[in-house]
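Format notes (please read before filing issues)

Several people have asked whether sequences and structure tokens are stored in separate files. They are not. Every record keeps both together, in the order shown below: the sequence lines, then the token lines. Line labels are part of the format and must not be stripped during preprocessing.
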Amino acid sequence: MTGFKEAVEAVGLVIDSAGVLVIVIGIGASAVRLAVNRVPGDRYRRLRQDIGLSILLGLELLIAGDIIRTVAVTPTLDGVLVLGLIVLIRTFLSMTLEMELEGRWPWQRGAQPRASSDDP
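Then the structure lines:
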């Protein structure tokens, strides 16, 4: 059973690393896109959206890594409670970030996005 726990721990670590990598590469790609893209428009808003999308994807991977490590490796009540708190915080961050990017809550997919004060 020790080999299984070590393997699951390694998988969780790989997924966590992928989450951090997605965020870092996404920020770098967003900066390159800002520098290269000379199309007129709200470049700052596009940069914020690109970075926000990278953070959202990275957070999803980090949550997955936490779930794998906590449930499969150390399924204690304390571990599950800490995991629940971490998932709650990261989910709240994801939802508020999506609200900031899309102009609506995730459950309002059919609704029209709000008009930004920056839009003409």
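For reference, the curators noted about this record: The first helix runs from residue 2 to 36. The chain has one domain: 2-108.
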